[in-house]
Every structure is written in structure tokens, then in C-alpha cells.
């Protein structure tokens, strides 16, 4: 079995690629390297190209004997998606549709899709369940939901089956500190905390401490990227055994506040995290964390890493790779 991994040169894609290979499957990574890093692919078979290139997809499927796909490739900057919607709809939605049609024409029927908890927007209640209301508050989130729906129709009208994984907050780095998030482009909390604690930024800006939460700061569900990778392998196994199409939240089921992250970072690293309180960031919900029962029960998957593991792995990665894969 060979898995086509689109976007496999990215943060989550590269760590998942490594685990898929360790599970005994062959892989071929497709990435434009626009945001990904060639180094992150290592010695995995690699093709530089675009998911929208239907002829290329047909060639890669034929030459590598592809029979499964994990689809990560997408633009994912929420803010940019609101200032350049066309870039996001064209690349994420149209590109994915061309990919799925090329796969269908080539007889590939199993797809695991990298979706996001952002499709829930500001959740009406927590923990969030897959059956809860969907309320996309950004073009980025809307593109992910449109791709989910496209896969749903392929599932209804063809022999294609899919698993859509709605990630909560992916964080941390590979266990061996050789793969991780490129903090030069990320707006997420953990890379920003690491910049502050390692002296690459004067202080962390805490976006609001007046939320209706225990300590007033935003609460999220931080899932270790190695656990997230394991969820993709479990999804491939599920489809290979004939599993029907399904959408699953991927999270720990626990809420963690910004101040919790700061305190954990100070304890794990032994260093102070300089921070300053600022106003809330537009669109930030107070709380968003998963009800992970569906993935627990369907795949037998549950997280194995702790918040300490997230922080210590991120710290080790950013300490050894201050310039990402260009370090
Ligand atoms: C987490 C918490 C912030 C930065 C985003 C995307 C979502 C998904 C996950 C792709 C919030 C606070 C953050 C900082 C802070 N990505 N914060 N200072 O917004 O929950 O979700 O990443 O699928 O689509 O929207 O993650 O890490 O930006 O914020 O105080 O410098 O940390 O207010 O409470 P978010 P985040």
C-alpha cells in the first residue's frame, strides 16, 4: 500500500508522513514547497507539484501505486484568508476538487482529510461535538467546510470513502526534535510563547484576560502533533478495513487556558515567560475544546502525550531550530 500525502512537507504533514512510513506503508509526498520545507520530507519519495495538476496526480498514482491519500495541502492563515479570499478558495477548494476528481478517475477510493475545529466558529457549548452547529467565521474555515462537503458528495455518489479529521489546536514537535512548527510564519500561541521564553520576542501578548473563563484567558484544546499523527494512521487503518465515511473531532477533550500554558512553560523550562495583557483578538471565542468520544470509540484512538510533553517538545525543537528547517 502506498499513501499519497499532499502537503507532506509541512508541520503536521511531515510528522504524519514519518509515522505512516513507520506503520509499514509506502508513501509519496506531494508538495509545492511554497510553505513546506524539503528537509522536512527527509528520504521519503517526493514530488514537487500542485494538487490542482490533474495530469501530475494521475502520473503519481500510476507510478507509485497509490491506493490511499492523506490530504494536508492548503493555505491556513486565518487572517490572510480574510484579506485575500480568492487565493484561499482557488487553492484550497478548487485545488482539492481537482485532486479528488483525479483520484476518482484513477480509482483511488480512500481519503483522510485535514480539517479544522474552526468550522465550529464560536461554539455554542463546550465540549464541542461533531453534530454541533457549524459556523465558519473566516474564509479559511469556510474552505475547509466546503472541502468536507465535496468529499461527502463523492462519498455519496462514487465508491470513494473518507475520514475528515477536525483538528483542535495542534502543538508541540516530533519526539526527536527534528520536525516542528516554523515559528517565523505561525500566529499560534505555543510558538509565540516559545519566542518569548527563548528571547526571540520581548514578551508574549496575551489577547484578553476578561473572558468568562476561570482565569479570564482563552481556553483551547491543545493536541500534541504526534498524537494527531497517530489519529491519521488510525483513520487509514479504519478505511482499509472497510470503514464508512466519517467526520471526527481530534482533541484531548480538556480545556487549557493561556495562563495554564504560561505556567506549564515556566515549570517545564525553568524560565520565566515575559508577557503583557492586551485586548481580545477579533473573533476569538472564550472556550473551544473537543468532545473526542467519536474518535475514541470509532478508531480506539486517544491521546498519549501530556501538556508537559507538548511544551517540552516545542521547547526542544525551537531551541535547536531557531530558524526552523533553515537552522
Ligand atoms: C490560542 C489561544 C488566543 C497567540 C487557530 C486557528 C484554527 C486552527 C488552530 C488551523 C487564543 C491566545 C494566541 C498569542 C494569545 N488552525 N493567543 N497570544 O485561534 O484557537 O486557532 O489555530 O486549523 O483555525 O484559528 O489558536 O494559537 O492562535 O490561539 O493570547 O500570541 O491563545 O487568544 O485564546 P486558535 P491560537
Q: If you had to describe this structure to a student in words, what would you say it looks like?
A:
It is a single chain. This protein is of the alpha/beta class and 327 residues long. The protein has 2 domains: 2-171 and 222-250, Rossmann fold; 189-221 and 254-288 and 304-326, UDP-galactose 4-epimerase, domain 1 (Alpha-Beta Complex). 40% of the residues lie in helices and 18% in strands. It contains 11 helices and 14 strands. It has helices at residues 11-22, 38-41, 54-64, 78-83, 85-105, 139-157, 189-197, 225-240, 258-269, 293-299, 307-320; strands at 2-6, 26-31, 46-48, 66-71, 110-116, 161-167, 169-171, 204-207, 219-220, 222-224, 246-250, 256-257, 275-278, 287-288. The strands form 4 sheets. It has a 7-stranded parallel beta sheet with strand order 3-2-1-4-5-6-11, with helices on both faces. α3 crosses α5 (85-105) and α7 (189-197) crosses α11 (307-320). The two termini are 34 Å apart. The mean pLDDT is 97. Bound molecules: UDP-4-deoxy-4-formamido-beta-L-arabinopyranose (WQD). UDP-4-deoxy-4-formamido-beta-L-arabinopyranose binds next to α7 and β8.
Ordered list of secondary-structure elements with their pairings:
Layout: E1 2-6, H1 11-22, E2 26-31, H2 38-41, E3 46-48, H3 54-64, E4 66-71, H4 78-83, H5 85-105, E5 110-116, H6 139-157, E6 161-167, E7 169-171, H7 189-197, E8 204-207, E9 219-220, E10 222-224, H8 225-240, E11 246-250, E12 256-257, H9 258-269, E13 275-278, E14 287-288, H10 293-299, H11 307-320
Parallel strand pairs: 1-2, 1-4, 2-3, 4-5, 5-6, 6-11, 7-10, 8-13, 9-14
Antiparallel strand pairs: 9-12
Helix pairs in contact: 1-8, 3-5, 5-6, 7-9, 7-11, 9-11
The structure holds UDP-4-deoxy-4-formamido-beta-L-arabinopyranose.
Residues 76, 78, 116, 118, 167, 169, 187-189, 192, 204-207, 218, 220, 258, 281, 284 line the site of UDP-4-deoxy-4-formamido-beta-L-arabinopyranose.
Amino acid at each position: 500500500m502506498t499513501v499519497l500525502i499532499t502537503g507532506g512537507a509541512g508541520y503536521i504533514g511531515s510528522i504524519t508522513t514519518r509515522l505512516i512510513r513507520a506503520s509499514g506503508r509506502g508513501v509519496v509526498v506531494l508538495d509545492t514547497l511554497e510553505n513546506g520545507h524539503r528537509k522536512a520530507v527527509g528520504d521519503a519519495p517526493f514530488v514537487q507539484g500542485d494538487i490542482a495538476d490533474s495530469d501530475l496526480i494521475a502520473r503519481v498514482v500510476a507510478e507509485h501505486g497509490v491506493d490511499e491519500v492523506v490530504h494536508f495541502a492548503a493555505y491556513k492563515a486565518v487572517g490572510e484568508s480574510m484579506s485575500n479570499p480568492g487565493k484561499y478558495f482557488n487553492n484550497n477548494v478548487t485545488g482539492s476538487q481537482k485532486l479528488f476528481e483525479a483520484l476518482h478517475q484513477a480509482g483511488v477510493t480512500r481519503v483522510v482529510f485535514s480539517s479544522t475545529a474552526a468550522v465550529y466558529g464560536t461554539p455554542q457549548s463546550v465540549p464541542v461535538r461533531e453534530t454541533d452547529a457549524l459556523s465558519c467565521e473566516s474564509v479559511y474555515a469556510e474552505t475547509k467546510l466546503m472541502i468536507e462537503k465535496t468529499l461527502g458528495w463523492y462519498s455519496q455518489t462514487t465508491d470513494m470513502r473518507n475520514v475528515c479529521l477536525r483538528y483542535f489546536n495542534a502543538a508541540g514537535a516530533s519526539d526527536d526534535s527534528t520536525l516542528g512548527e516554523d515559528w517565523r510564519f505561525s500566529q499560534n500561541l505555543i510558538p509565540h510563547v516559545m519566542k518569548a521564553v527563548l528571547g526571540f520576542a520581548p514578551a508574549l501578548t496575551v489577547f484578553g484576560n476578561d473572558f468568562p473563563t476561570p482565569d479570564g484567558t482563552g481556553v483551547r484544546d491543545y493536541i500534541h502533533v504526534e498524537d494527531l499523527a497517530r489519529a491519521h494512521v488510525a483513520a487509514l487503518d479504519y478505511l482499509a478495513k472497510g470503514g464508512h465515511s466519517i467526520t471526527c473531532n481530534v482533541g484531548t477533550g480538556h480545556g487549557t487556558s493561556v495562563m495554564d500554558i504560561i505556567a506549564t512553560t515556566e515549570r517545564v523550562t525553568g524560565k520565566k515567560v515575559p508577557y503583557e495583557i492586551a485586548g481580545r483578538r477579533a473573533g476569538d471565542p472564550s472556550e473551544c475544546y473537543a468532545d473526542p468520544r467519536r474518535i475514541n470509540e470509532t478508531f480506539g484512538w486517544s491521546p498519549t502525550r501530556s501538556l508537559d510533553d507538548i511544551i517540552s517538545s516545542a521547547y526542544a525543537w525551537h531551541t535547536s531550530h531557531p530558524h526552523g528547517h533553515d537552522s
